[in-house]
Amino acid sequence: MKPTDTNRLFEEILNARERVYNVGEATPLQQLPLPSLDVDVWVKREDLGPIKAYKWRGSYNAMACLSPEQRAKGLVAASAGNHAQGVALGAKALGCKAVIFMPRSTPEVKQREVLRFGGEAVQIRLVGDTYDDAGVAAREFCASSGGVYIHPYDDEVVMGGQGTLADEVVMSGKGPFDRVYVAIGGGGLAAAVACWLKRYWPEVKVYGVEGVEQASMKAAIEAGGPTELDYVDVFCDGTAVRKAGAVTFGYCQELLDGIVTVSNDEVCHAIRNLWETLRVIPEPSGAMALAGFYQDYEAGKCSPGDKVLTIVSGANMDFAQLAGIATRAGIGSKHRRFLRVPIPEGKGSLVGFLRELPEEISIVDLQYGRTDSDVQYPVLGLIGSEEDYQVLDQVIQSRGVAASDVSTDEDVDYRIINYSPELFRFPLFINIEFPERAGAFLEFMSEVRDLASLCYFNYAYSGERVGRALVGMEFSSEDAQLACRERIMAMQGGAIRAAREVSNETFYRLTGHKRED
């Protein structure tokens, strides 16, 4: 491991100020409107930089420091996306060529942006499934071609460019800050920010933030040196690094005041918070710093009146990922929780339980299928505060049963609903739409509970003004089924907005037999 030299790193940041603004401008600081908190929280908007992420600073600085002869050999880089865009931007600006190795799983939006920024100056090569695979291929190509490797983080010149972000914070006049949170992938940004800010504000505390299953820097500090993780979660793909850098490790060990590890759900909650307060949608790794702050704040580690800085480090995300983020995010100060609740089989039993839920708790997901048992186990996805959940726990205890928290269970995540269709008597499956407001679903179920028993239910909150659910009901007779069908259709425009019976093909797939029309 290379010994640290904070004076040298400080000088690299100082010198980088003369270069990086050839291709980009300073990004703004914004205060988050969070009146319910007793601290002031600010965000550094790196999502507003030229590549919608901070990486342009370090990559361009390293490239601009090279001589024309070095650049003429060709530049080589490995990246999961944002560093690649920075290299592409620099290659075009400096009139040189770059070959960029990216994992095959890199989101299309990041590949497309690399080509947009670099044009004919860049060539993308997709190799392997991880950043580490791409890195090995890039190093091998460098050795055979004589090109110059531009590291995404483990280089003091690259770190110097990243540190210009911290210089802008100091120059903004918004400081000093008491606590600063920075996402860690390789650790270059966190080290540079800590180096610069501690020089001007010696009392500032700087915390790195890593994903629970990406915490390579935390593992390195605990082990006394970089150590390779056996598994790396890639939900926050911009920070998915298997092994901390040899250079960045030393600086982070010396300069950081701690490392916070956050879950993917906490990151999603932070993304939602940024959307609700500033209408900003960062990529998951871009929201990690805010997630780290929230974890510390809720643990009582912040003092009233603290001025807190978090860095929104990027916003390059595949649009399709938004759906998954929305399902994992809480609302305001409330958090998502999935419970598997034992409920006796019978008419109205589920409705009876739902009526006992605290009014403040919102149902955002319901997965249920009847099985061969006297007790059924529907899964309820809930949004509530810790206080709300304490009340709910008391309700469940009063029923003499124990619910299981299944928030991380795979079958719940993939919405695998087990049921036994051979048990269904005179089944009726209907797609219903109801106003997405508290009590609307209960109004519908209360109207039919005397006729039907639930045998299947599949609902997930979508964020629209209407909720949509596939509801399966069974009856004691054909007459009861007919009466319920007529009652449901008459309810349209009232307790439900619309109702539509499933097609014959869908009915067959759900039950295994043809519907008697």
Description:
The protein contains 20 helices and 20 strands. The strands form 4 sheets. The chain has an 8-stranded antiparallel β-sheet with strand order 16-11-15-13-18-19-17-20. Strands 1-2-10-7-8-9 form a 6-stranded mixed β-sheet, with helices on both faces. The chain is 38% helix and 20% strand. The chain starts with 5 loop residues before the first helix and ends in a 6-residue tail after the last helix. The chain is elongated. It has helices at 6-16, 56-64, 68-72, 82-94, 108-118, 131-145, 156-162, 164-171, 188-200, 216-223, 246-255, 264-278, 288-298, 321-328, 349-355, 386-398, 410-413, 440-448, 478-490, 504-511, and strands at 29-31, 40-45, 75-78, 98-102, 122-126, 148-149, 179-183, 205-211, 258-262, 307-312, 335-340, 343-344, 362-369, 375-376, 379-384, 404-405, 428-435, 453-460, 466-474, 498-501. The mean pLDDT is 91. With 517 residues, it is an alpha/beta fold. Helix 1 crosses helix 7 (156-162). Strand 3 (75-78), helix 4 (82-94) and strand 4 form a beta-alpha-beta unit. It folds into 3 domains: 6-54 and 158-316, Rossmann fold; 56-151, Rossmann fold; 335-511, Biosynthetic Threonine Deaminase, domain 3.
- Ends distance: 76 Å
What spatial form do the alpha-carbon principal axes imply?
A: elongated
Quickly name the level 1 CATH class of the largest domain. Answer: Alpha Beta
Which regions are unreliable across 5 or more consecutive residues at pLDDT < 50? none
Mean pLDDT: 91
Which fold name is given in CATH as the topology of the largest domain? Rossmann fold
* Whole-angstrom Rg: 27 Å
Question: How many discrete domains?
Answer: 3
Work out the number of β strands.
Answer: 20
Question: Could you tell me the strand content as a percent range?
Answer: 15-25%
**Helix-residue proportion:** 25-40%
Cofactor: pyridoxal 5'-phosphate
Keywords: Amino-acid biosynthesis, Branched-chain amino acid biosynthesis, Isoleucine biosynthesis, Lyase, Pyridoxal phosphate
Family: Belongs to the serine/threonine dehydratase family.
Domain ACT-like: 428-503
